[in-house]
């Protein structure tokens, strides 16, 4: 039986975010085990892809969470072995001046899938409930209207046959701080740390209050939120992708192994003696 968390750890968990359930005492997952499990899940994602294509299904997957919560890592593992013609990531930049005058959901609606597509939102219309609200990019009334209208909007999507999955990645205060420091020190990760990220570090509790309001208003039976504990990145990826697959009623489609046709005959073809520029063989 796993070790039960101490009362102190329970209190810290509640202070840092949503109260965590009882721990089963698992340690870090081994790299070899993780790679084997993630490969198995990616094989299932390919099966899902074939089902989506064959049935013209429409799937929307939202990933939300604090900065450095691990959204990009999960999305990367989902996309590694599937076709970008079927799976598409929507990561919209800040709205233009024109877009600021549109309906809030308008530019996100343009990204919704057609039949046979899966769209993954790396942040979504829920920006209105998070960064826009906390940083003052929308008014209190606009925020209130969003929380009121969002369940209706999502209910409409579901009623039209779209499969909608919403994931909130929950990272602890300590782990987020650690990841921000790693981004500062690692030249390959510095691009991930924006002024907004730095401000989110300072405004931890403002974002906590915004998250609480969002979950209370938009966690509905038609479009529920699923919380992904993401301090352990590897377990978060495995748990989230496994849940995603279990939430979609896909079936493995019949597959006939193709036979490679023989090469055509040379018929006098000769490689031309032309000189071309080549990439230097450094390795």
What does this structure look like?
With 283 residues, the chain is of the alpha/beta class. It has a domain at 28-171 and 210-246: Rossmann fold. 43% of the residues lie in helices and 11% in strands. It has helices at 7-16, 31-55, 71-79, 106-109, 131-134, 140-159, 173-185, 195-202, 204-218, 233-246; strands at residues 58-65, 87-90, 117-122, 163-170, 225-229. Strands 2-3-1-4-5 form a five-stranded parallel β-sheet, with helices on both faces. Helix 4 links the parallel strand 2 (87-90) and strand 3 (117-122). Helix 2 packs parallel to helix 10 (233-246), helix 3 (71-79) crosses helix 10 (233-246) and helix 6 (140-159) packs across helix 9. The chain is globular and about 75 Å long.
What is the gist of this entry?
The protein contains 10 helices and 5 strands. It is of the alpha/beta class.
Question: Secondary-structure blueprint of this entry?
Answer:
Blueprint: H1 7-16, H2 31-55, E1 58-65, H3 71-79, E2 87-90, H4 106-109, E3 117-122, H5 131-134, H6 140-159, E4 163-170, H7 173-185, H8 195-202, H9 204-218, E5 225-229, H10 233-246
Parallel strand pairs: 1-3, 1-4, 2-3, 4-5
């Amino acid at each position: 039986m796993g070790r039960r968390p101490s009362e102190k750890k329970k209190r810290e968990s509640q202070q840092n975010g949503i109260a965590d359930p009882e721990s089963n005492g698992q340690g870090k997952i081994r790299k070899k085990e993780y790679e084997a499990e993630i490969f198995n899940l990616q094989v299932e994602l390919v099966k899902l892809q074939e089902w989506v294509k064959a049935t013209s299904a429409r799937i929307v997957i939202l990933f939300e969470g604090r900065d450095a919560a691990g959204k990009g890592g999960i999305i990367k593992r989902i996309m590694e072995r599937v076709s970008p013609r079927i799976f598409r990531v929507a990561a919209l930049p800040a709205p233009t001046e024109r877009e600021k005058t549109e309906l809030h959901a308008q530019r996100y609606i343009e990204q919704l899938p057609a039949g046979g597509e899966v769209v993954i939102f790396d942040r979504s219309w829920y920006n209105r409930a998070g960064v826009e609200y906390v940083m003052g990019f929308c008014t209190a009334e606009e925020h209130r209207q969003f929380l009121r209208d969002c369940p209706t909007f999502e209910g409409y999507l579901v009623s039209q046959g779209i499969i909608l999955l919403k994931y909130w990645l929950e990272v602890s205060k300590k782990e987020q701080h650690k990841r921000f420091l790693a981004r500062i020190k690692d030249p390959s990760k510095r691009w991930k740390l924006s002024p907004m990220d730095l401000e989110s570090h300072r405004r931890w509790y403002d974002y906590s209050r915004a998250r609480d309001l969002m979950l209370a208003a938009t966690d509905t039976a038609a479009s529920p939120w699923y919380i992904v504990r993401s301090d352990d990145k590897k377990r978060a990826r495995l748990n989230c992708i496994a849940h995603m697959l279990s939430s979609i009623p896909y079936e493995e489609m019949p597959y006939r192994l193709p036979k490679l046709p023989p090469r055509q005959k040379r018929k006098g073809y000769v490689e031309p003696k032309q000189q071309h520029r080549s990439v230097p063989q450094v390795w």
